[in-house]
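Quick illustration, no need to memorize.
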Amino acid sequence: MIRSMYSGVAGLKNHQVKMDVIGNNIANVNTIGFKASRVVFQDIYSQTTKQASTPNVAGGTNPQQVGMGVAIGSIDVLHTRSAAQFTGAPLDVMIEGDGFFVVNNGSNNFFTRAGNFYTDQNNNLVDSSGNYVQQLGDTAGTTKDIKITDGYYDISIDKNGSIVGINNLTKAKDVIATICIAQFNNQNSLEKMGENLYINNSNTGVPNYLNPGILGAPYINPGALEMSNVDLSKEFTDMIVTQRGFQANSRVITTSDSLLEELVNLKR
């Protein structure tokens, strides 16, 4: 009786977490480059009230166990492909495959799928939060800020990540810099940091910095942005199922309470 009450409490708590995740997904249905998350449940250990027995004179018997409730198994980020939104803006870009743009806040590299880039007053290429967009560094495994030098106009980005501008003097198209892409052995372990940013950790593996279209790296889709991969129909369906799960677990608690009340009322 008491076990059922604690199982119901565990169910309420963890269904609330799932509803929190669903609510965040729905809130970010129009967030550029957003990747939805999902909650996976797992059962808590089961208490064995009777051990299994091997066949002897009589046949064998199976164990008897009582489950102790539910727990969060994982909260996964779903790095599935999502639709492109054509904007026509010359500095808007989208990655056509696995990988992340690399930005730096002045001290640390972060990773993002949001490719809405701009130039600041010093001609640095930055994201919407002012982080510096990166290109490959002079040594292996490093990156550096992209600065668009003076003397160019009609700046744009092509499918290879090359930032191209027309030279004021020669009127020729020159490649000023090239945006790099980071790939990971385990991108599912990236941690969300807010502002469309991720940070790597010990389980992601070391980021592999590549130029788009080189050594298996995906190409860039210029003039487009990656939309959120949130599927509203799925989220609303999950919301209904989660709500019913929450209600069912609350009934377990109230029913267990009624049984305890009957037990207390035996002596009057």
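The mean pLDDT is 93.
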